[in-house]
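User: Fold this, then the next.

Assistant: Folding the first:
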Amino acid sequence: MARAGQADGAEPEPYDAGPFVPAGGDLRALREAAAGCRGCPLHRAAGQTVFGSGDASARVVLLGEQPGDQEDRQGRPFVGPAGGVLMRAVDEAGIDPALTYVTNAVKHFKFEPSPRGKRRIHKAPNLREISACKPWLAAELRLVGPEVVVTLGATAGKALFGSSFRVAEKRGAALPMPPVDGQESPGTALVATIHPSAVLRADDAGRAAAYAGLVSDLKVAARLLT
């Protein structure tokens, strides 16, 4: 029986963005190529590819999960409420936002429609989708060559460490950067923390503590900058 969106007798859609990643291209070339990525089925429902944003000389890569509704509409990462929380926390931690490159582990918005109305409800990407998109992340990290990578939330951590990653076990410490698609990143450290959307989801009593924890973890990243 064919899966939804797959015609009878058709080949299953691949889960590998690798063939779409141009060899030797700069960030602009990657961004242009990513607009046509068909490396997993998520491209079918999403409005557009949301590639990373920032300069190739950035010292810090901020790695989130996937674009949200606003990011999908505008084509840029972290432009919604969570992005506002993140940039405020980055600045408060002592990291110049201009020295950051912001991207996501998955470049297309995964969602399910609301039972009522036109609202699109965020749905976390699965490990197969995360793995399919990893060639884009590996190419970004190769070109930027950051001193520090900050993973924001569980999906970002799993993209680098695998399915066993748990934010609570790893957050707030300087960790060695694992290979990405077999690519080593000597000289790059990693700091794990919560996704800024967790601050927004916290109740009134816990929101201040969640935000303070995010800032505290980002201060660890700030101290690693030489």
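Now the next one, as you asked:
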Amino acid sequence: MTWVEQEKTALVATFRSSDAEAPTLCEGWNVRRLLAHLIQREQRPAGVLGDVISRKPPGQEPGLTKLTGTAMTPAGYQELIDRFSRDTPRWSPMSWAAEKLNLVEYVIHHEDIRRAGTEPAEPRDLPEDEQLAIRRQLGTLAKLGLRKAPVGVRLATPQGESREIKPGDGVTLTGDPVELALWVSGRRDAAHVNVTGDPGAVNAFQTWARAK
């Protein structure tokens, strides 16, 4: 199995063991709605576009509401999980480019479930090679999320790997790849990441991050 296949299998298991009404780290989304998002993203691109055009706030997207409306009973929720667990249609880029498009997506949303609520789960002990695969895909996500940072930014792991994301003097974000993925995607309170650098740069960076 590829890493994305293994992560999807683990995510499906977490969906099956989770309360559909439980909160997630995604504002306005419970576990059921997060599941619907993943199905819509992979199987119903027109629904994704419709929700974007509707400009409804999180929790009120019409496409996701339609999907979740079919899964309000325990049996309906399990059927929705079954739908997600099936192979993605071959016409979808989420099928033939799954490793590049879905690995980090699955990892982040998996932690959206695990780390939400009053008793968030501890980080998972993922295989080193999977962590490496996640780290290799962080560049685009990090550059998008940090492009407007007021100082230079570098990502680093506790093992010593380092990558410049925004040129210039500034700050270093240090954490395992999953933690860095959570941080740059906006899940900062849930991410185990240290921000270091010149005090002035750290202060400017943290002020900017809190305002986002």
